[in-house]
């Protein structure tokens, strides 16, 4: 055992100083690479499956939220349609014309004085 440790240390020092085993390392790496891939495959597969399951559950939750939002927006649209019809009926009863072509003006606010004594009526 002691002899194996001494030989290992000598090989490590020789390789680090002189690069003696660099060609051997390349061949061993090529030989061991498929084994590393096979050993890593289950972990990689589980990671991929976990991501897929998480993504699927996120999509299901997002779909539920969007369905709820769609329901809310549809109910608001129905209410808006009802109000438009009611306004039209009230205008007909009052004989008031629709003012779609009314004149509009846009203005920019220059300043606001927060002093209450400066307010003029």
Automatic annotation (TrEMBL):
User: Example GO biological process term?
Assistant: regulation of cell shape
Q: Which domain of life is it from?
A: Bacteria
Can you name a GO cellular component term?
Answer: plasma membrane
Q: Could you identify this protein by its name?
A: Rod shape-determining protein MreC
**UniProt source species:** Aeromonas molluscorum 848
**Taxonomic lineage of the native organism:** Bacteria, Pseudomonadati, Pseudomonadota, Gammaproteobacteria, Aeromonadales
